[in-house]
Structures are given as structure tokens and as C-alpha cells.
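Q: Okay, next protein. This is transketolase from Sesamum calycinum. I've checked the sequence twice, so it should be correct. Can you predict the 3D structure?
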Amino acid sequence: MASSSSLTLSQAILSRSSIPRHGSASTSSSLSLPSFSGLKSNSSSAVIRRRGPTTTRLPIRASAAVETLEKTTEAELVEKSVNTIRFLAIDAVEKANSGHPGLPMGCAPMGHILYDEVMRYNPKNPYWFNRDRFVLSAGHGCMLQYALLHLAGYDAVKEEDLTSFRQWGSKTPGHPENFETPGVEVTTGPLGQGIANAVGLALAEKHLAARYNKPVARLYVILGDGCQMEGISNEACSVAGHWGLGKLIAFYDDNHISIDGDTEIAFTETVDTRFEALGWHVIWVKNGNTGYDEIRAAIKEAKAVKDKPTLIKVTTTIGFGSPNKANSYSVHGSALGAKEVEATRKNLGWPYEPFHVPEDVKKHWSRHVPEGAAFEAEWNAKFAEYEKKYPEEAAELKSIATGELPAGWEKALPTYTPESPGDATRNLSQQNLNALAKVLPGLLGGSADLASSNMTLLKMFGDFQKNTPEERNVRFGVREHGMGAICNGIALHSPGLIPYCATFFVFTDYMRAAMRISALSEAGVIYVMTHDSIGLGEDGPTHQPIEHLASFRAMPNILMLRPADGNETAGAYKVAVLNRKRPSVLALSRQKLPQLPGTSIEGVEKGGYTISDNSSGNKPDVILIGTGSELEIAATAADELRKKGKAVRVVSFVSWELFDEQSDEYKESVLPAAVTARVSIEAGTTFGWGKIVGAKGKAIGIDRFGASAPAGKIYKEFGITVEAVIAAAKEVI
């Protein structure tokens, strides 16, 4: 932490946020928590600031200029501000001739109240650690968020960004992208992902509050009917209710319209009752179009509920203000058209040119820049006091907030020799997780009801539960899709939070959408995937992954790692921890494997490397390439071929992605172009291996579904054997 010790916490966080996109001692559960008094001001010590016809509490006194302005604000200026939001969205979609104007037009009132009256943030430092956070789960309505960020003074969304909505290189893409637009917390668009991300963000807040006595910032979400229909939202909201995430407040945009028309055609459940059954507090705002005081009252009520999340159902009219398209599917996903834009301007009394922000609205919103700076300054001062009193805890929290890993953390990784007992890599994974948990304060995670099989329990910690949120074992239940998205939220909360989640490798099918968002949004989740092949045996083809390795190798910005033994498992974890902007998938065996000579942590970092070679001059007769449990087969086959006088190189190909990133010189030293006699062996599809073995090589694998039988029998029947490798080698030499 020395390099950032002279910086404020906020400066350190901001410096860490500039890392290019797509780049490459723990506290016990019985810790007596230090006081974090004043770190975020309690409402009892706050002063009341007028905002519109109601009041809110802030930890600083508003300037006289702001107070004078707000005496003249009241309902008229609020309405003007709301219409500014609406028309910024209308104009941007119209200019792009692409987008979704209906949601911003309907949700503008709740958006205005959240960003102008409720949330604490600093527009000039979107990464301020103690900010309130907003997630637009209904990401198609992103012009709502862009308009709010613009009005609030975020540098990422200037007027020119609004006018280039959905254009090449724009900071205002077609759905919110956290890696493109500072101020956007998570990447949304695939419906339901955002609310699940928000559950992860809220989990992170509750966890950090419990460990460091840090007052909890709030999470606000807007989700729509589409999010409600997607199963992931129910998975995530179910476990959110179980965990009692009281700082999570979700606004359900109840407009009864989806792309195909009125939701009566497919979605007639009583959402209120379902959420009550999930353990949420539920409030209904019946007039979300103009009922500003109803929205404010609902937020006040939600804040008073401490032991459960709140769903505020806000009944709105999609496309509010459009005389001919409001309350219809035609306003959902396409521009209004010039005639309807003009009619809407007349209907709402809006005489301004496109993209115009009236001066009084601009002046009203301008106060958020100095207020945000004051919020952050207060936080920094209180954190400095905390740091003096509790240096160890402050150092941990700073590590989590900035992503700067503790010095020497990698020394905790276990190492193995060929004499070490053989073991399944899932068991070796648990050894690594427990070693890392002692030195990485931000490591936490769990399994989808398979902890005892995935071997993911941190033995020195208990379970994260409603009443024990300081613990670091997360019980996700049988909710793979929700689990992945929740972990994305945890990872994107703070760069030093390192979430891992686990299930059987084949069940990544249930969470692939969340894993793709991990890769897209640069969320460094560690996916611990066990039972990685036909080697799991008797459970049969429903549980035996075949195409999965290839599918993740095809996905951009994700590392697919398949370690063969203890050293390679440790290497995989080192790589995964270091890649904070790229998720990692670790494919781990159920069956016991030997500790192989020649494997190393350093080799894994190269992706592919030589573990044995009796050739000279970089001219082996044949190169045998294996991954995971099949590396042992390749090594044994090499021994047999060498007995017959062959010069054989054995290459462990743990990660294709890492190997591709190495220099041409290094790749030539491992796989010389002149050596075309190559054989690969992997207990999965041969798809893609042609890239590695070349046209004259042989790829041994499985291009059909598996079978139910003991692992040894399946390997023999499918030809994943030493004999098959030797035969293939003889063919290509």
C-alpha cells in the first residue's frame, strides 16, 4: 500500500480507475469492529435542505445561493426539470433514429427525484467510494441515465455526447456500459442482469459495513416488466430477500407494455405478492407520471425499512406526453418521428430547440458539483481519522477500495513437487482459496448449493447471512444465473473485491449470459468450475461437459484455464487474481491426478509451456499437447515414445488466451513452426484444436456426448488413452 499512502482514499480510487479497458492479513470473523463514527454523516447530525416541495437531509449546509434559488423552485421547476429529461431522451433517439424513448419519458419523474433530491454522489469523481449507486436494469432506456448524468454535471456526458447517441466512439452507447461511460455502475441491456448486479452491489455494501463499521451507501434500481419476466431477476431477488439487503431500493416501472404489446398477453402475475413472498417490503405508487410527492413518500418509507429490500411499484405511462403513441408498444423501441415529436412538444408545452436545457434548470442542477465535492471531502476527512486510529483495518479497506493488492500476496500460493500426494484439482483449488483468503481481504464467494462438491468453503470463515454479513462464504443456493450476475455486481463495486463462484462446469449453461457480461463489463469474477469432463464418471452425459471449453475460448476478454495439477492450479489462481478486468474460468477435475514433473506457476502465466523435452535445437520429432487431466496421458505417452528413440516435447496448454498474448519468439520456442508433427489430447470437443496442431497434426478428443460409467471405462471407450496418443504420434511423425 506504500505507493498510495500519501493519497486520499478517493484519489487512490480515481488513479486505479484509469487502467485501460480489457487489460490484462485477513480479519477474523471475531474481530472487534472499530468505530467509523462520522464516516458518512448520520441523519441526526445533518441539516435540512429544501428541494422542491419537500425536504431531504445532507451532511453539509447548502450555500445561500442555492437556498435562494430553491425558494423559487417548487413544483414548476421540478416539472420543467422532468420535461428536460424527457426531451433530451426524445431528441437523442430522434437524431439517432434508433433507441427507446418510451421508458425515459415515463420514468423521468423518479429519475429526477433520485438524482436531484435523494442520491449522494460526486459528478467530478464518479468512483468516489461512498457514493450512492444507481442501476438501470431496463438498460434499453439508457437515455434516461445519460440525461441525468448530463444534468448532474458528469464530464462523461456532455451535450455533444447526447447528440452522438448510439454512434461510433460515443460515450452514450445503445445500452449502459460501465467501461465506456463513467457514472454508469454496471453494464445492462440483457433484461434482469441489472437487478441481479444491484443485489451484488448491495451485498458488497452490507459486507463491508459489517467488517469495517462503514455506514452503508444505498443502491437504487429501475427495472421493468421485461426484467420481471426474466428468471434471473427472481433468482437474485429471492436471495436478496433472504439476506435482508435493506439498503436496496428497486423501482418497478409498471407500465404494462413490452415489445409485443400489452403485458396482458403473457405476464399477468401479481408482482407485489410475489415480492412480499420473497421477503421484500413492497410499496405501490399509483401515479408515477405526476405524483412526485407519492414517489418521495415511497422513498422515505423504503429508507425506514432496515431489514429487507424494498420494491416500489411505480405505475407509469410509457411514452408519457406523446399524444398518439403513449401507452403503446410503438413508443417502446423506436423514434417517435418528427410529427409526433412536434406534437409532444406542444402537448407538454416545450418550446425549446432539440437538446436545449433551460437556464433555470441548468442553474438548479449545477449545485451537485460543489455538493458532491463536499460529500467526498467530508468522507476523506473522516477516513483519515479512522486511518490514524485503526491503521490495519484502514489498510484493508483501502486495498479493497483501490484494488491495490497487498504486497507479497502471491507468496501465499501453495507449491507442490512430484512427490506430493496426487489429488483432484478441485481439492487443490480449495487449498489455494483458503491460502489466498488469509492475505486477500477482498476475496469472498461460494457455490450454487455445491460447496462440498466444488470444494469452495473458506474454512476460517462462516456464512454470509442476514445476521452475519461480515463472513465470507456466500451461499447462493441453486441459482447459477443469479449467482454469476450477483458476482458481477460484487466485482464492480470495488476493484479490490475478488468474488468467486462455483458449480459444475456443465452448468455454466445456466449462467452463460452473466459470464458474458462479466467479460464485456470487465468484471474480474473467478469462476470455479469443477467436474470438468467425462472424468466425473457415473453421472453421465447430462453432467459431462463436451463443448464448454471451446465455447469459452471463443468468448472475448475471458480466460479459460484448465490446470493439470497443484502447481498449475496455483498458477491459475495467480492469473485470476491479477486479472481484475478480465474474468477467469477454472476447469477443475473430480478425479485424482498426479503432481507432474515440470509444471509451474510461472508456466501457467505463459498459457502454454514445455514441461518435458528430450530434443535439441528446438527440433523435436513430435510435440504432444495436453490440458488438465489429459496432460498426464501426454506425459506418459512421451515416456513410451522416448524409449523407442523419439525426441518428444510435452506442452501444457493451460490457457489459449494467455499463450496468444506471448511474443512471437516465445511461441516459436514452444511450438516451432517447422515442427508440424503435433498431437493434442483433451477430454472435450476437438473444435478449435486445428489452430494449435495444424493441418498435419492430430487432435484427440470427444465430439459426441458422454456416457454413464466409471471414469476409467469412459476414457478407454472414447479413446482418451496413452495408446491413442502413441498411435497418433506415429501417424504424424
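A: Here is a summary of the prediction. The first strand starts at residue 47 and ends at 51. Residues 1-6, 16-21, 23-72 have pLDDT under 50 and may be disordered.
Q: Noted. On to the next one.
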